[in-house]
Every structure is written in structure tokens, then in C-alpha cells.
Amino acid sequence: MQPSERHSALDLRAGKRFSIEFYITMTVWIGTIFGSQFLVAHSDGGLKVFWALIPAIPALVGVAVIVRHVRRIDEYQRAILYKGFSVGFAVAMVSAISIGLLDAAGVTLPAGYFIVYAAGMTGWLIAGFVLGRRN
């Protein structure tokens, strides 16, 4: 992508750097989820808790990647990002409430926590895309 009236070369570099760091972190996170689920199924006792919490490490790295990206970008890009976060957070909360209401009605969704996560991330992605194109 070339610099334009919307995005400076600095913005483009920051976005590319964030994309690379974030995608690597999320790939590692997904890998640790599958690995930890396998290890949880094949271990017992206190090790189950240890293996179950291993995916939290790349998730925390993901938080650091996002914080670093927020520090790199200008105010305009930060405003778009925060609006996207807001939409993603709202979508995640509505998903969590809906899953809780379904559970209260006796409908248990397997991996409901992941549905909340995926809904929030999808809301953030779509909102960021729409807001970035609109302005």
C-alpha cells in the first residue's frame, strides 16, 4: 500500500508492524490452545491446571502488542482503534449475556467462552474496517 492523503508512510509502517506481530502472536496462541488441550486430556492432578493456563501467556503477549501499537499510532488512528474496541467490547458483552441466558434456560453451548471471544474480535475487526473506510 502506498502513502496517501489518508495514511502516511509512518501509519502504514506501524500498521504493518502491528499486523505481523499480532498475527504471529495469535498463531502461537492458537497452537498453544490445541497443545494445552491435548496435554490437559493426557495428564492428571495439578498439571491439568498448569497446561490449561499455558495459552494465557501468548494472550498476554497479544495485549502487549496491542498496547505497543496504540503508542505508535497517531491520534486519528487511535480514535478509530478505540471506537473499534468499543464496538468489539459491546458485542462480546452481548454475547456473554446471551450465552448466560441460554445456560439459565438449560441450553449449554460447548466452548461458550470462545464464542464470546470470537464475537468480540469480529466486532472489533468489522468496526475498525468500517470506521477506517468511512472517515
Question: Would you give an account of this structure?
Answer:
The chain is mainly α. It has two domains: 1-73; 74-135. Helices cover 82% and strands 0% of the residues. It is built from five helices and no strands. It has helices at 9-41, 46-53, 56-72, 75-104, 112-134. The radius of gyration is 18 Å and the shape is flat. The mean pLDDT is 90.
Computed CA radius of gyration, to the nearest angstrom = 18 Å
Characterize the largest beta sheet: strand count, sense, and whether it forms a barrel: none
Global mean pLDDT: 90
- Helix content class: over 70%
What is the count of β-strands? 0
What distance lies between the first and last C-alpha atoms, to the nearest angstrom?
18 Å
Order of helices and strands: HHHHH
Helix tally equals: 5
Domains (count): 2
Beta-strand percent range: under 5%
SS-based structural class?
mainly alpha
Shape: flat
List keywords for this structure.
single chain, 135 residues, mainly alpha, 82% helix, 2 domains
Write the layout of secondary structure elements.
Blueprint: H1 9-41, H2 46-53, H3 56-72, H4 75-104, H5 112-134
Helix pairs in contact: 1-2, 1-3, 4-5
Outline:
The protein is built from five helices and no strands.
